[in-house]
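Chapter summary example.
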Amino acid sequence: MREPIPVTVLTGFLGAGKTTLLKHILQAEHGLKIAVIENEFSALDVDGELLEDAGAVQLMKVANGCVCCTGSKDLAYALTVLLERLDSGELDFERLVVECTGLADPGPVAQTFFTDDLLRERYLLDGVLTLVDAVHASEQLSDPLLQAQIGFADRLLLTKLDLAEPAAVEALENRLQRINRRAPIRHVDHGRIELAELLDIRGFNLHDEDLAPPTLFRPLRPVSEAVSLTERIQSIAIRESRPYDQDKIGKVMEMLLDTLGCDLLRYKGLLNIAGEDRRLLFQGVQQIYAADWERDWLPGEERESRVVLIGMDLPEDRIRAAFERAVAKA
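The structure predicted for these 330 residues follows.
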């Protein structure tokens, strides 16, 4: 049986430099066989011509508009066709990059890899990379679409840094951290960045030993009221040293999915369950949710639950109160 094909989703607002980065990925001396699904929003296929000589195994256009507008049926079809061509020997590739249009919500793209049995078996969603234009982001961040793209990200990649003032870049990084605390920020120099920063990041891997590194909860500088009022996407980090009641925490997750729906973009956590020697890992993309028992807690290891939720207009007080009620009684 073939190993699942790692998938990288490349997103970012219009003009952030996705095509330039994609050309770098395809042309770098890495020896990898990479297929590309390109989602072109306009009828004029500009990016296709830019990329046609970049070394992609296969360049497929998702028909007529962005994935989020068409549902994800076109993307699912393109993914299936690639598998058919791979299995028949017509194509040979070992990784896949899905480049989203700047007008695409990455949520439906990510969900595609969890809602179809064949795609879930044959593909492994490795991570969502969001490019952010360091020159124009301060104005663009008032757009909920860009905030959603940032909220979904496993890596935030800053571009056009040579054109931005250092003080503005520092302020932007602080603002991005407030929106998405779990995504490391990396700098891209004219499309160039170490591939190790882009591939094998295990953003959707339930068996990730490094679920919540210490940097995830680093203190953030306060932002002005004028900035905070424009940001609808925020991240909530919860740490709890007391064990959770399994039934109660399950009801908390059901409540979150039922009441918040698609406003809950990404969430991931490690839970300490009362009376259980194993660690419970969970993660979700909007209303697609999965949980799995992992290894035993190690002797001397701190049994601490760590949860990160990223979403739009999240009722933080109500969420924290719900998790508090789920703590097991002593």
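To summarize the output: The chain has eleven helices and twelve strands.
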